[in-house]
Structures are given as structure tokens and as C-alpha cells.
Queue: 2 jobs
Job 1
Amino acid sequence: MLKVIAQDFIKPEAIDIVLPLYRELVEKTRQEPLCLAYDLFVDQKDPGHFVFIEEWPDRAALDIHCATEHFTRLVPLINAHQRQDGTVVLMDAVPA
Amino acid sequence: MLKVIAQDFIKPEAIDIVLPLYRELVEKTRQEPLCLAYDLFVDQKDPGHFVFIEEWPDRAALDIHCATEHFTRLVPLINAHQRQDGTVVLMDAVPA
């Protein structure tokens, strides 16, 4: 299982613009057959700091996601409104 | 629901020291009645970069967690091995 945290830092004045784009991205990504979890959160202290917490079977599934029509169309539209570069961390679970 | 991402940056030489401390912290935290989710991950690119993804009903539940015997005993022991300060982000879900 591959866990992903992807963080975006959106300009405050663009939050209303990106929200519907995010919602479409979440809705369509959750329909992907290999998507295990794909949830979007916002920092309580920073309304432009959006955090995806994602779960995929493996890297190949994530790569398929990143090549989908909705991802390749929506992410550039969202990234146009960033105030700083986003970050992505790929993680493994620490066994109990 | 309150979602939390807590990140630690541990010195490479101390990873074997902190792992059992992390495991005890995860085990005991998951037994807390108000704990909805408490999972530990490690960055594929940085074996000292540990990431907790947590879920609590609300801030009060998180505060109770931070006052528990296991938290107050184990977290300082872990933090003694940090190479830089950890970060904590409290988040709300973005409604679909």
C-alpha cells in the first residue's frame, strides 16, 4: 500500500476559484478503479493550505492517476493559483 | 472530525532507537476511547521522516491524547532524537 500526502499552498484570493476544481478532482479520482482513498483537507490555520491524503495499491496506480484526463486537466488549472510550490511525500506504513 | 498530520524528522542514527517508542505510542494511542485513527508512516525518500496521520472527534479529544501518560512519557524521548523540529497541522475535511 502506498500512502501519499500532497500539499498545495493557494493564494487567498483564489480559494473560491480552486474549490470547484478540487471537488471535481476528488469526485473523479474516487471513481478510479485503483483508488483506495483520496481525501482533501484544509489547514485550520491557513485556508489556502490544502492537503490531499491518498492511498493507492502501489506506485503504478498513482502513475495511472497522474495520467488521467481529470488530473492532467485540473491540476495545472489549480497550480496556476499557488503562492508557493506544492509538496508530495510518498510513504510506507510503519508496521505495528 | 479533526484530522491531524504530525511530522517528525529523526536523526538517521537514532531510527532504531525511536521505532520501538513509536510502536508503543501507536499501540497505546489506538486504545484511547476517543481515537478514531492513528497511523504512522515513513517517507520513502527519507527514513528519518516519520508522519502520523490521525483522526479525532474534536480538539478536546486531541488535547486528552496529548495529556496521556504514554504521550507525555514517549514524545519527549522521541523528540530527543530529532534533527529538526517536527510540524503539526490540524485540518478540517473539505466537503465534497
Job 2
Amino acid sequence: MFIEVEQKTLAKALHMISGAAAARSPIPILAGLKLEADPGGLTLAAGHPGMMLQYRIPSGDGQAIVGQRGSIVVPARYLTELIRRLPEGFVTVSCTEDRVVVIRSGGAAYRLSGMCADAFPALARLEHSAVVHMPNFALKRAIKQVAFAVSTSDARPSLTGVSCRSEGGQVRLTATDGVRLASRTIAASKRRQDAFPAVVIPGKPLSEFSKMMHDEQGTTAVTLGKDSIRFQTGDLLMQCSLLAGGFPSADQLTPAAFAAELTLETQALLRTLVRVSLLSGDSKTVRLTVLSESAIELSSRTAAVGDAAETVGIEALSGEKLAVSFNGSHMTDIIEAVDSACVTLKLAGKWSPIVIRPADCPSSFYILTPIRTRG
Amino acid sequence: MFIEVEQKTLAKALHMISGAAAARSPIPILAGLKLEADPGGLTLAAGHPGMMLQYRIPSGDGQAIVGQRGSIVVPARYLTELIRRLPEGFVTVSCTEDRVVVIRSGGAAYRLSGMCADAFPALARLEHSAVVHMPNFALKRAIKQVAFAVSTSDARPSLTGVSCRSEGGQVRLTATDGVRLASRTIAASKRRQDAFPAVVIPGKPLSEFSKMMHDEQGTTAVTLGKDSIRFQTGDLLMQCSLLAGGFPSADQLTPAAFAAELTLETQALLRTLVRVSLLSGDSKTVRLTVLSESAIELSSRTAAVGDAAETVGIEALSGEKLAVSFNGSHMTDIIEAVDSACVTLKLAGKWSPIVIRPADCPSSFYILTPIRTRG
């Protein structure tokens, strides 16, 4: 293997994908990063059999010149830290017969012990696949607005994922940890008339991938195989195994009827919620009380420290004057995700889930189970 | 107690000094922050008997209005987090008879349990004191350039401090952990003809204080008492106990004669040192070899991972072609502190300390003990 590549280009590629390499692994090759040079360019890959990230630097546009094809696995951390700190200009990467990777730039020569690329997990072929195309801007936003609600516990593995299913010309993403639920649709263009059944995508790689979608004008092709899913946009590719197990439906959590509906300014609610949550203690309990047609009160209390009470103006109210308690930290996450000037809260009583919707956008909704209090 | 104070002003004051309050303490009052209102303004204090930070918001310029004098201790973390998040405008802070502190702003009312201010450590009076005045800009820079070299081990407590002594019209600051030493003088104007003997100031509070010196045009008054020292600039005051115990002199570490002296571009040396250190392993050993009249090589090796070698151009060389090994991380700290376009390294042999000086500034110097290697 012999390649010449722009330091900036290589540093950017490594910055993107090296996080997928294990920091420490009983299987040393999984802490590695695979470099594969062919006449068309350089492909970098990192990950494990359940999740693989791949980035390609094409040789066409002068960023990389492949002198000799070949492949090798290099310790990800050392390579990334080194390339990031090299001066600008072309870097040469070559590989000796005994798998020593030599990196040169100006007066610098670095030699890293490589590992055989054959032992590195390969990207599985996707059989019986269906493809859906989604605009990056909408996909990135939707993942951010939904994926925060995944469960962090391994008790029910499917809840650590984001459910994805087709609904007409749209794709609906849903995440829940059993206490809160976030759901949003995105317009998607199917280029092939394949079926796209409901699947559950691991939440963490999905969030990581969404942060790497730098080209917001582009499109992501989502390819669904039998037990894996692939996201591909520009030179970046992420493929991961789907999660097995059932996924709760939002309908099960949504109350049949509501007793009150109130609309508030999102930023005013968010700022007050964050402040009142400061004194919500270990249980994070924040109480919302509808005071009048024009104001609610948020309150909290931490034993031995103190208590908080703030009023927030209401834009519109219909129905009864209720009070309900909830996890202030969960509600903050939801209000932060709402992404709309006003937000509507639908209450069905102090023991029934609260439904939260952006006031001007029907494509997303959130559900939060209340905390049962004595008061 | 009743005061009205601008949210921005109070938030800035709390941000500065609340770090001095203990995060968790077996003595609850040390996790508190003392508020003391008198007709002249509001004084905030945090710390412990060995180190106290104090900030005063004067009532004169409209930032604070004291309605009723009084003092109380409030949990530092809660107060700081709350005030930071309140909207701009005036905040009122009052105190009930049963020591509940009430904070109001717009529609918000927060109540925090206070503690009796009499139990809070008082600022000790400085007896037999001497005063020296130093320009903030020079003092801030000098502390940054020296304090990194303090010891982090409690084995010899005096080495966790910065030695400070008068030398003619100057003050010399020195720090060392036994392996490396950093020293620098600052011009100081003594307004009183007091003696200012050598003392050792705890390194951590000194560094923290230097970061709070926002007014670089101002002056700091340093008042030395029998066993405490006070730094005061503008509205900010820091007082801490001096460290007892001997402090090594730079003369003991400095070789009597040098075999070689080389001058290099500081930034080129620094960047190369950081890269080569990536492969210096757990021992952090980096080797410097004078290759010729015009170049040195820095090299390192990590077992089972790889090795590094880079050349750096020399601006000027006199003496022998030597090789010496040192802790790359310590040398990086020193070269970062040098703050000059070129740096001079004076070598006396592979077992003798290296002396490092900014090429154009006689006021500072650094000493680094080499690592003894077999090669």
C-alpha cells in the first residue's frame, strides 16, 4: 500500500469515524481502523460486527493519490491523534511487508504496528433490501428530536432503539423509555416500490450518525436488509444490526380524552422549567398548576434546601383548571426538542399521561407519564 | 437583610467566587456562600479558614441597592445555578427571621434555607504586614508561566506552592516539583519600605486567582502577614495561609557549566514535541539528538505500538553535538510557558539538568532534569 493524502482531508475523515473504534477491547483489532486503498480512493472503516462506520476519500479530486493498493488495520487512537497534529500538506502512508505502517510528512517519520485487514469485520451484504431516500436536513432534525427519549437501561433492549416505520409517503421515528415517548414523521421519497416494515434501530449509532451529517442539502439513502440497516450520505456510510423485540405503540399511552389543553410560549416555559428543576431534588418532581385563564405555576421542593414557585403566562387555555406533577428533567428534554415558538400541553388528569405538541406542526408529538403525588 | 441587585452583576460575582466553596463538606457551612449587606454594598465570601475569596458589589453605581443590612450563609451551588438562570433585571434577596433566604425576580419566588453567618470563617487580620503592588498584566502572565510546575503530590507540601521573594525592585516567583523548575521575575513597586521575606504561596488558589484577574490594566496589592498573604485587585480579594517548609533553590539544580547551547523556533519545537510525545509511552521519554549544525531530531517509542522521529531546524548552535532524554510532557509544558518567538536550550550532558530560556527575555528560566536511559 502507498497513498498520498491531504492532511486536512485525512484528519477530517479520522475525526468522523474513529469514535466508532473501541477505546479498549479484548479483541485488539476492534480498537483499530481499517485503511483500504484501491485505484479509486482510500476507504476508512471502524466499528464492530454490530455497527460499522465507513468513510471514503475518492482519488479523483486531488485529495488522495493511490500509488499502490492494499489494506491494513492501524490503532485508531494513535493514527487519529497523529494525523490531527501533522502540518498541512500531503501525508504519505505506506505499509511494509511485515505490516509496519509508515507515515511521512516533511521531516517527520512515524511507524505504527499494523494488523492484518482480513481479521477486521467486513460490512455485511444486505439481502432482500428496500431503499428509502430522505433529505438530510429533515432526517438530522428528526433524529435529534426523537432519539433523546431512548431508554438507557438494557432491561428491554428494544427500548434503547428508535422505531422506524413507513406511513404512506412518510417515515415515522419513535423512541420511548416507558415513561416518556417522542415521535415524529419525515417526508421520504421511495425510489423503489419496496415494502419497508417497522424496524428498531439502535439509538446511539443513529444519534452519532446524525451528528456527522454535515451536508444538510444532501440526501441519505436508507437501505433495509433482513437484520441490518444502512445509512449512506455522500462519502459516509453507517451500517448496524437491527434490535429485536416488541416496541410499544403511542396509542397505548395516549389518553382517550383530555380535560384541559393549554398553549404556552416555548422559550418562556423552557427557561422557567430549568430554573424550577434546580430545586426538584432527587425525584426531579415539578408540579404544574393551572392558576387562571392566563397563568400556570411551576413549583418544586428539595427537603432541607428550599422550594421554588414561578408563574408563566398562558397563550390559550381550554378545559378545566388541573394540577399535575412530572419529572422536570424529562419535561425539559421534551420542551427543548419541540422546536416551535409555541407548545401545547394536553392534560387528562393528574394520573394520566401528558401529551405535548408543537403548536404549529402536526408532524411530532411527545408523551410524558406523570409522577403520582399525594397532593 | 434586604437588597436589590442586578442579575448580571450578581451572576458574575457568584461565577467568580462560588468555586471556592466546598462541593461537599462534612462541615455544611463550608459549602455555603456568605452574603453580607451593609449600606456601602454587598460582600460575597466563599472558602475555608486556609483560603478565602471575597467579592464586593458596591451600592454606589446602581448595581446594588441595600434596603436593610444583615448577613446570611446560603448553599453556594443552588444560589449560583439559580441566579445564573434568572432573567436580566433586578433581583431582590431578603432574609426572614428564621433564616430563610427569599429570592424574587418577576413571577419567580425561590426560598433557600440559610445558615447563621457567625459560624462562617472570618477573614483573619494580617499582622506585621508588608505591601507590594504589581501590575495585573505582568502578575497574571507570571503566575501562568510558573504555577504549572508545582508538585501535585502532598509528599512535600511546600512544593505544591509557588515561592515568592523580593530581589531588588522585583519579585521572583518559582515553582518546582523536584524534576522541573519554573522561575520568573516581575517588576513590583513597593509603596511602603517594608521587608518582604521569601514565602511559599499555595499554587492552586494562586492560579485560580490569576484567572479571575479580568482587569489587566489594574494593579494588585499583595499584603503579607505573619502566616497569611492577601491579593486584592478592584472588588476581588483572595487571602490564604502560607505553606511552611523549605524550598529548593534554582542554583542547586543548575549545572556549573554547559557543553552545548541551541536556539530553536518555539512554535516549531512545540508542535513537533507534541507529535513525538504521542508515541512516548507511559514513561513519556522523548530523546533529543543534535544531528548537525542546523538540525536536531526528536524521537520516541512505545513498545508494541510504534516509534516516531522528526527533525527540527536549529537557529543557532554552539558547543558539542549531544543527545539527551527527558519527559516529553514536562518539556511541552515548559515550551508552552516560554512565550517568546525563540527558545534557548542549554545542555551539560545526558545526565545533567537542561536549562531552558526564552531567547529574548532574561526574566524567566526553566530547568528540567533528564531521564537516564541506557542508550
